What we know:
- This protein is 52% helix and 10% strand.
- The protein is an alpha/beta fold.
- The chain is elongated.
Amino acid sequence: MPFSHSPKALLFDVFGTVVDWRSTVTNYLISQTHLTLSAPTSSLPSRTRLRASTMTPQDWGVFAQQWRNSYKHFTRTSDPTTSGKNVDDHHHDALISLLHDWELDGLWDKEQLEERSRIWHFLEPWADSSTGLEELNKAGIITATLSNGNVSLLSDMAHYAHLPWTRIFSSEHFKAYKPNPKMYEGAVRGLGLHVGNVAMVAAHLGDLKAARGCGLKTIYVERELEEDWTREEIEEARREGWVDLWVGLGEGEGGFLVIARKLNEGNEEECGA
């Protein structure tokens, strides 16, 4: 049993932990570019058409990663109490900037840019996400987002990806971005629980370390290509033991289903004690 007692609530990081942003965004950019290039009414500048025609799937993968990196920079450096921009605004502006950097100006018009930038509302879940959340809910555990995304983004994503959250907590609620302690402490207060009864679930050790510093329990779920820490830093975190439950890539039923099983096993042990 990884915990002295099972948590009553789990707070989930979303991008990368619950949903596979990389594949979704990359494939979407490729498909929308193909549609634009093949549209009979398309009147792209010749330079843009040539550049878009030479973009490989690998190129679009790099583009998607840069878009994601720009989001990370935005949430690290922006103060939501003064900036006047939310994550949706950033995704829109960053898309325009990246298209310029890649010499793809004019690929999409204003309305299309708005639509393309909202792909982050409709990300595909990892295979275990929806069913895992359902199992946790059945066990009576509160499941809630704790994300830097705005409320409308998280709500759209929950509907699209069939994510049965009990609660949605967003940076908009706390006027801060993770890893600011206001996020973790605010969510715990919002749940009305003692901090020792709440665990943070994430595929990013930096997120978990910040949550741990605020007194939360921690659950690490490995997801492919999601961890920013180096191999040495990951191994050091394992040795230090501040992650309460570590779910490896490809372990058992996968991700959230493993969490549900292990917490259920822990509850059975508590009842039998």
